[in-house]
Fold this sequence. Notes:
Helix content: 55-70%
Radius of gyration: 18 Å
Number of helices: 10
Amino acid sequence: MLIKADTIKAYIYPTINKFLFAAPFVIGFILYYLSPKLSICYLINLTHLPCPFCGLTRSFSFISHGELQKAFYYNWSIILWAPLFFISWVIQFLPLTLKKRSEHFLRKHLKLINLLFYLFLTIIIGYGIIRIVDSIYHFWNIPDVVPEKTLRKYFLKILSK
């Protein structure tokens, strides 16, 4: 199992989670103003190939500004990630009695949660593989979400001179 019964408390109770679950929205909000065309992803900067999570930072950036269509364009899985992070963040502010109820609910439905999580990861990784193949061969014309500015492009430009 990916999520175990004894690790559920780590998702619900630590104070640091108030910051961790809000981080994608806050970082996305800030990056929206800095440079939406610059990639902070290590993988894309090294390989120039989209990964399954490619575009999620920009999706969080657009969702934090209410631009849902653009968020969906950059990575469709934002429709699952954003609510997951938001609900997890809200749980951090619940009174202790409601946190315990949440913990009980999660423990009770742990098998289903793990099944859904594995299914979600399988779909995301499969889509990531399709995205990589399409970025090379252009079979399905999936939108290219690789930013204009990456470290790889920068170095190739320098080396070609």
